[in-house]
Design brief:
Structural class: mainly alpha
Strand content: under 5%
Number of helices: 17
Length: 413
């Protein structure tokens, strides 16, 4: 096993915030993520205003996430071989520009459904490349022994922004309009860009396969395929992402068409997911970071999430929506934060970027495939029935993989 258990630090993850360098990094990323969540809701409502059908809404979500299926490998390659800081700065500039164009386009009424789709796709490309690069860069900001702590803190700030962003949307959308949400998001990129410009990057030694993108990426695939635990973990994430995670992408449509045609209702429910996510992140920051226990949380939370999603699909009132989405938010953090931590701790350092590139692909890349499939089926079948069916399938497949791969034995060994 490549991970050295002796690297685990005692005490809660919050102790890491005493380091000024990491604290500033944490705050800058938090502000950027608040802006992203603010824009996500504005984007959902804008797309529904331009074209209110399940397939058209699902297509916008699809375009924002599908780049993860094709460009995350490039991000993984860059993370292992090239300049991560400059890559992130370039991605931030492109995403900022896209938000500005959409916001100004709404003001002057030149944003059409097709133009919105194009800009959403461009922003999705920057996200796909940034994700693995960001995580590997984080390992250079903190010592390797603090990596599990850093991942816990990242999960906390990300999910805190998941709550704050929708709350700001609900409070300000009536005053600044949809266009104001996009413009605020553009401004939120600036602090993180400043931090990146001041960040020094560790120099990498040149390797023979660095110049060949194809061979470098394929080497990462061979490494994952040759490690049984990594391979089965990626399979679990794939199943979860294509069958279960799409609930988040179609949530605005479910709220608008099955509950209330009111953006504030969407704000309450998305904030409930955020509160649940924060609760999960706080719990993770205090409990054991032993690699076997992290793996157990990863698998068990996958089962529990599927069960709660089945219950959610039967919900009919706003209070019940809020309760179930709270637990969905909590379990989503347990699943993906634990998966992320485990993959980084288990992977060899020289392959970490490419492993995270594959993780991004199966986490965020296949998610839009599930989302657009649900959107297309939603033209003929009740969307909540589809969610119930998907949750039952995911439960069955997760159980099959765990039994066939004897993952229970691994978590106890």
């Amino acid at each position: 096993m490549p991970y050295d258990k002796s690297l685990d630090e005692k005490g809660p993850a919050f102790l890491l915030l005493k380091e000024k360098k990491f604290l500033l990094f944490f705050l800058a990323v938090f502000l950027s993520n608040v802006g992203n969540w603010l824009q996500n809701l504005a984007l959902s409502w804008l797309s529904l205003s331009l074209k209110n059908t399940p397939s058209s809404f699902g297509f916008i979500t699809f375009l924002g996430s599908i780049p993860n299926l094709f460009f995350s490998f490039i991000g993984g390659y860059i993370a292992d071989n090239l300049n991560k800081r400059k890559t992130l700065i370039c991605c931030q500039i492109v995403a900022l520009s896209s938000a500005l164009v959409i916001g100004i386009g709404v003001v002057f009424n030149f944003i059409t459904y097709l133009r919105l789709a194009f800009l959403t796709f461009i922003t999705g490309i920057t996200t796909a490349i940034s994700y693995p690069v960001y995580y590997v860069l984080m390992t250079e900001i903190v010592e390797i022994k603090n990596l599990p702590r850093a991942i816990s803190i990242h999960s906390l700030q990300f999910n805190l922004s998941r709550m704050v962003g929708p709350l700001i949307f609900g409070l300000l959308v009536s005053f600044i309009g949809i266009e104001g949400c996009f413009l605020l998001n553009a401004m939120s990129f600036l602090p993180f860009m400043i931090i990146l410009m001041r960040q020094k990057e560790r120099m990498l030694s040149k390797k023979k396969d660095q110049e060949n993108l194809k061979e470098n990426v394929l080497a990462g695939f061979r490494y994952i395929r040759g490690d049984k635990i990594l391979f089965l973990s990626i399979m679990i994430i794939f199943i979860f992402s294509i069958l279960v995670l799409p609930y988040l992408g179609i949530m605005p449509y479910v709220v608008k068409n099955f509950l209330e045609d009111n953006p504030k209702a969407l704000s309450y429910i998305m904030s409930s997911i955020g509160v649940g996510s924060i609760s999960g992140a706080i719990i993770i920051s205090f409990i054991s970071r032993d690699i076997k226990k992290v793996f157990s949380r990863f698998v068990i939370s996958g089962f529990l999430f599927s069960i709660i999603l089945a219950i959610f699909s039967l919900s009919k009132s706003l209070p019940f929506y809020i309760i179930t989405t709270f637990f969905l938010g909590m379990l989503m953090v347990f699943f993906y934060a634990s998966a992320n931590s485990f993959l980084q701790m288990w992977s060899k350092e020289e392959y970490r970027g490419r492993v995270l590139g594959v993780f991004t692909t199966v986490y965020l890349g296949v998610y839009p495939v599930g989302t657009i499939a649900i959107g297309m089926l939603g033209e003929y079948i009740n969307l909540k029935t589809i969610l119930l069916f998907n949750s039952l399938i995911s439960l069955s497949l997760l159980l099959l993989i765990c039994l066939a791969g004897r993952l229970k034995d691994f978590s106890k060994s």
